[in-house]
Design a protein that fits this description.
This protein is α+β, with helices and mostly antiparallel strands. It is built from 2 helices and 11 strands. The strands form 3 sheets. The chain has a 7-stranded antiparallel β-sheet, with helices on one face. A two-stranded antiparallel ribbon has the order 2-3. The protein has a two-stranded antiparallel sheet with strand order 10-11.
Length: about 170
């Protein structure tokens, strides 16, 4: 599933940075705590696209407003911040904090102070599993469970590879 694109957190904007180890403005946590955040979503995008979302604290997770599908960040409820702006990038594989910093600078524009870029990777929301169940001695049933879009992305990729193959002469 590494080749599939997913939304990844590029940067958080929670409050004013205080040195390099935390935030001020009433928040008493280390910026290293942001590394624990896990973005979970089914909202698809276009490879290379970027967006800025506002996440509100709801229970023990942050929920995005104004997205077409459910999108939330887990493992950051302990921060206790009521809301945060989050810069997202729709990409595959892993990204460094430096790559994400460039994305955040473009998105935040002139308001590029007080954000913290983080390294990112695939969201844990991508699942792919299958189960083969025998129906009788000659047939089997294949049941595939996958995150929306994961199978179609894999099929499209396989079609492109097969289409580009040249017959041996």
């Amino acid at each position: 599933m590494r080749g599939a694109h997913t939304w990844q957190v590029a940067a958080y904007k929670v409050g004013a940075k205080e040195g390099s180890f935390g935030f001020s403005g009433g928040a008493s946590f280390s910026c290293l705590d942001l590394f624990d955040g896990t973005l979970v979503c089914s909202d698809a995008g276009t490879p290379g696209s970027e967006r800025l979302c506002r996440f509100e604290l709801s229970g023990d997770r942050y929920v995005a407003n104004g997205t077409s599908g459910p999108m939330y960040i887990e493992n950051l409820g302990k921060l206790g911040v009521m809301s945060m702006q989050v810069c997202l990038v729709y990409a595959s594989g892993s990204r460094t904090a430096e790559q994400n910093y460039e994305v955040a600078k473009r998105i935040f524009g002139k308001d590029d102070e007080d954000f913290y870029s983080v390294p990112s990777r695939h969201t844990a929301a991508i699942t792919f599993r299958y189960e083969v169940t025998p129906r009788d001695f000659n047939t089997e049933e294949l049941c595939i469970t996958a995150t929306t879009g994961a199978v179609s992305t894999a099929l499209d990729s396989a079609r492109m590879v097969l289409r580009d193959l040249q017959p041996a002469s």
